[in-house]
Amino acid sequence: MSILRFARLFRKDTHGMSAVEFALLLPVMVVMYLGAVEIASGLIAHRKATAVASTAADLASQALVLSNADVNDIFGASRAILAPYDSAGVQIILTSASDQGTGSVRVDWSDGYNISPHAKGSTIEVPDNLVFTNGSVIIAHVKYNYSSTIGEYLTGARLMEDTFYARPRRALLVSRVP
């Protein structure tokens, strides 16, 4: 059999072509699938971190007075939102800040979970026109280091961070007692 004849037969033979195409496309398809799963999981973790911030601020803004037990309950409920993700490393700062007519917003009280709270009386930055004179706002700031299964080896943990503001519902200022 001559080489030219063998080349013609080889060119016309289509047996195994699908297997070759599949072998070439499989790595691309696997990477695309795992990438989609990682992106979806990261978006869910970010959404849960936002939900933690909104829930903490919302629960605190409904009270007239918060005790240590109330704040611990708020932190516990907020951490439960992160399930099934590990909530051990979540950091939450719950703060009440007000404008007493000075034009600057100052911290009335602040509590932290896995992080130091803001100092009482310190100035805190809030968006313009959020706090009116003699009014207050509850601020919940959440930081969560999300580690995905595959992304942990590629990029390491990703910081998911969000801040939520809520005005007190039943009074001008939510008080804090020990």
Proportion of residues in extended strands: 15-25%
Structural class: alpha+beta
Taken from the alpha-carbon principal axes, the silhouette is: rod-shaped
- The tally of helices reads 4
Q: In percent, how helical is the residue content?
A: 40-55%
Question: What's the SSE blueprint?
Answer:
Blueprint: H1 3-12, H2 17-61, E1 65-66, H3 68-81, E2 91-98, E3 106-113, E4 136-146, H4 151-154, E5 158-166, E6 175-176
Parallel strand pairs: 1-6
Antiparallel strand pairs: 2-3, 2-4, 4-5
Helix pairs in contact: 2-3
Describe the overall structure:
The protein has 178 residues and is an alpha+beta fold. It has one domain. It is built from 4 helices and 6 strands; from the N terminus they run H-H-E-H-E-E-E-H-E-E. It has helices at residues 3-12, 17-61, 68-81, 151-154, and strands at residues 65-66, 91-98, 106-113, 136-146, 158-166, 175-176. Strand 2 and strand 3 form a beta hairpin. Helix 2 runs antiparallel to helix 3. 25% of the residues are buried.
